[in-house]
UniProtKB/TrEMBL annotation:
Record organism: Hyphobacterium lacteum
Domain of life: Bacteria
Segments forming domain tRNA/rRNA methyltransferase SpoU type: 15-145
Cleavable signal peptide: none
Name this protein carries in UniProt: RNA methyltransferase
C-alpha cells in the first residue's frame, strides 16, 4: 500500500562542500523519492556539479535545485529552520528529534564535517546515532525516512510482529492522513 504523505509543511535537503557526483545524485534521488520541495548544495566542488549529466532518474526535472557558492548566498524561505546533520557531542539524536514543519536539512561533505560557519547558522544540530559516520547519501536517506515517520507519513505499526491490519490503514487514510 502506498503511504500517504503529510499535507502540511515542506522540506528541502542539501550538502555543504560535497565533491562526489554519485553521492549528490543519490541525495537528489532520495529528495525526489521522499517528496522534497527543494534540494541544494553550498560550495559544491566542480566534480559534483557534473551530476546533472548523470542524473538518470531526472530528479532535477521534478525537484528545484539551488547551487549556492557560499553560505552567505543561501536563501531559505522565511520560517524555514536549518537542521544540520552532524556527529557532535551536543547534537540531538535523530530518534529523539521533533522535526520542524518547515525545514532544510544540510549534511557535510564526504570525509569531513559541516563547517563551523554552517553549524553556527543551523537552528538545530542532529546526529544519527551510529557507531561511526555513515556515507553522506545514506545519512540523507535515514534523515528523510525518519522525517516521514515522525511527521505521520505512514500509519502506526502493528503491536504484534508482521504486517499492518489493512482495515486500520483504510481507517487511517479515511481520517485524512
Amino acid at each position: 500500500m502506498k503511504p500517504v504523505r503529510p499535507l502540511k509543511g515542506y522540506f528541502g535537503i542539501g550538502a555543504e562542500e560535497i565533491s562526489k557526483a554519485m553521492n549528490l545524485g543519490a541525495i537528489l534521488r532520495t529528495a525526489h523519492a521522499f517528496g522534497a520541495s527543494f534540494a541544494f548544495t553550498v560550495n559544491a566542488h566542480h566534480k559534483a556539479r557534473k551530476v546533472f549529466d548523470a542524473d538518470t532518474s531526472r530528479s532535477l526535472k521534478n525537484v528545484p535545485y539551488y547551487g549556492w557558492d557560499t553560505i552567505a548566498d543561501m536563501r531559505l524561505p522565511a520560517g524555514c529552520a536549518l537542521v544540520g546533520i552532524e556527529l557532535t557531542d551536543d547534537a540531538v539524536d535523530l530518534p529523539s528529534f521533533r522535526h520542524p514543519r518547515a525545514a532544510a536539512y544540510v549534511l557535510g561533505r564526504e570525509r569531513g564535517s559541516l563547517s563551523d560557519d554552517m553549524q553556527a547558522m543551523c537552528d538545530h544540530i542532529v546526529r544519527i546515532p551510529t557507531r561511526f559516520c555513515v556515507n553522506v547519501s545514506v545519512a540523507a536517506a535515514i534523515t528523510l525516512y525518519d522525517r516521514t515517520l515522525a511527521m505521520g507519513g505512514y500509519p502506526e505499526r502493528p503491536l504484534m510482529p508482521g504486517g499492518p491490519d489493512l482495515a486500520a490503514i483504510e481507517d487511517w487514510n479515511a481520517r485524512g492522513h
